[in-house]
Amino acid sequence: MMEIAAIKQQLTLSQVLSYYGLKPDKHLRLHCPFHDDKTPSLQVYYKTHSCYCFSSNCKTHGKPLDVIDFVMYKEGCSKHEAILKCKALIGGSVPATPARNYNREETLNYMFTYFKNAVHNSKPAQEYIQSRGLETARLEIGYNTGQFHHGRRRDDQLIAVCVEAGLLSPWGTNSNGGQGYRPFGKYCIVFALRNSKGEISGMYFRSTVNDDTQRLREAFSFPGLP
C-alpha cells in the first residue's frame, strides 16, 4: 500500500490545482475554493507543495494544506477517501491534465518566488545577506541553491523553459543515467529587475562564494521566452 509520504513525494500541488482547473495569479494566490472569497486569500507555495488561506472566514484557516488535505476539503470527503483519490491521480486512472505551459511572466515569477523561499532555508545565504547589510524585509532578495531541477517533483516543462532561457545548461548525466544539468548562478543571491509596470523583466545574480572572480553575474532578461 502506498504510504502518505510516498504520495506527497509523487503528487505535486501543481498537478492537483490543474486537475481542479485552478490557476494561481502572478503572486501565486488563488480565490480560495473552500469559502466565498472576493479577493485571493489562498497563498500557494510550490516549493513545499502546500497552501494556506489567510481568511478567517475559511474553515481551513490556521492550517497549512498539503496535497491530501487540499483534495479532502475540495471533495468534502474523509482523509482516507482523499488518499485514494490522490493515489488515483498518481496512477493515472483519473483523466490526466494537460502539461503546464509556462510563459515568460509565469516563469520569471515562479523562479523568483522559488529563489526568495530558498533564503529562509539557507543559513549561508542569510549570513551573507546580513554581512552585506541588506534587509530582506525591505528588499526582495532570493538565493539560488541550484537544486530546483532536482528530485522526483521536478517539472520537465519548467526545466525545458529554463534551458531555453539559459538558467540551466545540459551537462553530463544525473545519478539515474538521465540528462544532467548545470545551473546558472549557483550559490548566488538574486535580485528581481522590474519594468515600469512593476513586472519582473529579468534577474541579477551576485556570487556569495567567490567575490574575486564572480562578484558580478550578468542581468538575466530571458530573451528566449515568449
Low-confidence segments, given as residue ranges, are 92-98, 212-219
Strands of the largest sheet, in order across it?
A: 4-7-8-9
User: Per CATH, which architecture of the largest domain?
Assistant: Alpha-Beta Complex
Number of domains: 2
In DSSP terms (H or I, runs of 4 or more residues), the helix count works out at: 8
GO molecular function, one term: zinc ion binding
Organism: Chitinophaga ginsengisoli
Pfam families: Zn_ribbon_DnaG
InterPro entries: DNA_primase_core_N_sf (IPR037068), DNA_primase_Znf_CHC2 (IPR036977), DnaG_primase (IPR050219), Znf_CHC2 (IPR002694)
Structural description of this entry:
With 226 residues, the chain is α+β, with helices and mostly antiparallel strands. The protein folds into two domains: 4-91, Zinc finger, CHC2-typedomain (DNA Primase, Chain A), CATH 3.90.580.10; 104-220, DNA primase, catalytic core, N-terminal domain (DNA primase DNAg catalytic core, N-terminal domain, Alpha-Beta Complex). It has eight helices and nine strands. It has helices spanning 4-10, 13-19, 67-75, 79-91, 104-120, 123-131, 156-165, 211-214; strands at residues 29-30, 42-45, 50-53, 141-144, 168-173, 179-183, 188-194, 200-207, 219-220. The strands form three sheets. A four-stranded antiparallel beta sheet has the order 4-7-8-9, covered by helices on one side. A three-stranded antiparallel beta sheet has the order 1-2-3, with no helix packed on it. The N and C termini lie far apart (43 Å).
